[in-house]
Amino acid sequence: MRCAALYRVSTARQVTRDTETDETLPVQREAIRAFVRAHRDWSLVAEYSEEGVSAYRHASAERDVLQDVLSAANRREFDLLLVFKADRLSRQAFEYPVILAQLHRVGVTVMSVADVPGGKTLEVEGQFEKLIRFIEGWQAETESYNTSIRVSAAMEQMARQGRWTGGTPPYGYRLAQGTEGFPLAVDAEEAAVIRQMFQWYLHDGIGTVTIAQRLNDLGYRGRKGGQWADFRVRRVMKNPILAGRLAYGRKRRNGSGNHVLRGRDEWDQLILGPFNPSLVIIPPDQWQAAMDKMAAYGHGTNTGPRYSRADQGTLLLTGFAKCADCGGAMVATHGYYWVRRKAGDYKVPRVMYGCLTKITKGPTACPGQRTFAQKKVEDAVIPAILRTLGNIDQAAVVAEARRIAEQSLFHRRTRATQLAKHIAEAERIYAGWLARLDQFFAHPEQSLYSESVLAAKVRESEERLQSLRAQQTDWEQTQQTAAAQLADLERFLTNTANWWRQFLEAPRPRQKALLKHVLDRVVLGRDGYEIYYRLDLSQLVGAKTLAPIAWQEAATWR
Ligand SMILES: [Zn+2]
């Protein structure tokens, strides 16, 4: 057996800077060499070692030793690849199934020597299913997005005419009675509450949490008699109708199919009706000022706490970005940069990622850097994410999806053939017992069976036949569904070459929606950043038992 060894330090350890580990390259080398010596007829023909590992790596400067391994495997230079532990095979969990499949395809087996005593063969089965489910989720996201676009298009006509689409009027308004034309009118009582909210928010600097408390304390209730909550206050305040513009398509479906309110960053997807002065409760400039302030604090109105900022934030990475020093959220905030001119220096405003702890509790509350320029962050992080997605071997994924589809259909067909055989046999047995029963009635004295035995056998064989036929009907239905699903998936994979490139071409709100399937968080520090990937398959496929695939990478700022 010709063996090759791959020595590398795990990414997790790099990031936690856990260098006091017994899994350094020399330790790995010793373990794998000993493992080879322990097997007769095994020889170590090549050793691949990762050099110059540091806590932060320049992703672009990286020349992955894995590429050398794959090339050598393609040239059939070894039969068995030995790694210290399974997580050393690939830097990114995303790559893991692809690499494993590539090696398997050229006949190379992969073993980890330290995961379990005696070593463990790494199985390719099951790995691709994880990836496929992720792609299915990506595909589902595309479809729901397209649906929401179509709905919006249908509403556009009504919006142009400023027509009310019907349904419950927004808070602050009631259906006008006996008026011609536009059926909404300002509700004086609710409008007063809204004006109070804006007064507190803009002039007294009070946040929506406190506003909700104050309203409750003063005895105000929502329209249905419920208590005010901060998100309800924000939902009311965020409606452009307050500034005289009726908004269409404020809600969209999220990944789980629930309706969520579109955030400020998605307002390019809203359709606003013409300005209608009779609807104004808050003057447009004041309303806009409140919205800017709200965006600066990154307030989301989404239902899910986990991704509320990710869904609603202004910047691409709000909701994902975290401060390396305090762990707090990095939200969109306004900063300046200085332009120096002879006539005098002046400040130019720009949007930044800012540590929420510092913004809300003051500069001493967190030892980290207060703000990071949007451009610096996104120019570094987004290409890194794309590189990771780009590392996926598209052809390998499609080939593997096809293989799985065929295998799965084959199993199904085999099962269907088996069922058909069982049914034919059950029919024969049933017919046999019926014939014996006939015989019994014709010549009772010649029968080997009593009447009661025959009756029981006839009933028993009839029940078995019925049960098998029910199974067959069931099976045919699930098979049709499965075949349709697999066909969908294959069509998607074939037609959408480089499906991840959708990300590049997508408008920003959609990019954020896609990132949610890949990103857990991006940690921003003085020296560099860490990207934590997390494919939460359970959410995508509705199977709670699926563990998310997680991995991370780190790099220094350029
Ligand atoms: Zn901080």
TrEMBL record:
CDD domains registered for this protein in UniProt: Ser_Recombinase
SMART domains: Resolvase
Sections of the chain in a coiled coil: 451-478
Listed InterPro entries: DNA_bind_recomb_sf, DNA_bind_recombinase_dom, Resolv_N, Resolvase-like_N_sf, SSR_resolvase, Zn_ribbon_recom_dom
Keywords assigned: Coiled coil
PROSITE patterns: RECOMBINASE_DNA_BIND, RECOMBINASES_3
Pfam family, one: Resolvase
Protein name as catalogued: Recombinase family protein
Organism (species): Sulfobacillus harzensis
